[in-house]
Design goal:
- It contains six helices and five strands.
- With 141 residues, it is of the alpha/beta class.
- β1, α1 and β2 form a beta-alpha-beta unit.
């Protein structure tokens, strides 16, 4: 059994934002939403725990470079899933660790859910039962 994880979704499109919220809540995650870069940074640097950020870097309010630089300064580092167009953000995001990419295309929600669970398991292994097999965990999510 996994602990509840807190995920922040930063997405400019309200329909995609709500769709991703529903998908992640269905998977058992606590979800917060942000519609612009100012809201993302406010939540990332607030006292409320955020375990992972799903980010559309094309958010209103800041350049991608400034947004990535601000995320890079967070301690501890925040696991990041970039939900966008891979090559547009590759140069900025190489400094951020850990980071994964999910291209925006058609039905990417299954890929996104799998990557989120893999990244959480990789970044927070102690928050999962030690007797649980990671392969079994992936199959049950």
């Amino acid at each position: 059994m996994k602990q509840k994880f807190n995920i922040l979704i930063g997405e400019r499109n309200p329909h995609i934002r709500e769709f991703l919220r529903r998908e992640m809540v269905t998977e058992g995650y606590n979800v917060q939403l942000a519609k612009n870069s100012r809201e993302v940074l406010k939540l990332v640097y607030s006292s409320a725990p955020i375990d992972l950020l799903i980010l559309d870097p094309d958010l209103p309010g800041a350049s991608e470079l400034n947004l990535f630089k601000s995320l890079e300064d967070r301690i501890p580092a925040l696991p990041l899933v970039i939900h966008g167009y891979f090559f547009d953000y590759l140069e900025y995001s190489l400094r951020l660790k850990p980071v994964m990419f999910v291209p925006k295309q058609g039905n990417s929600s299954e890929t996104l859910k799998n990557l989120v669970s893999e990244l959480l398991l990789k970044c927070y292994p102690k928050r999962f039962k030690t007797s649980e097999d990671p392969k079994r965990f992936k199959e049950t999510i």
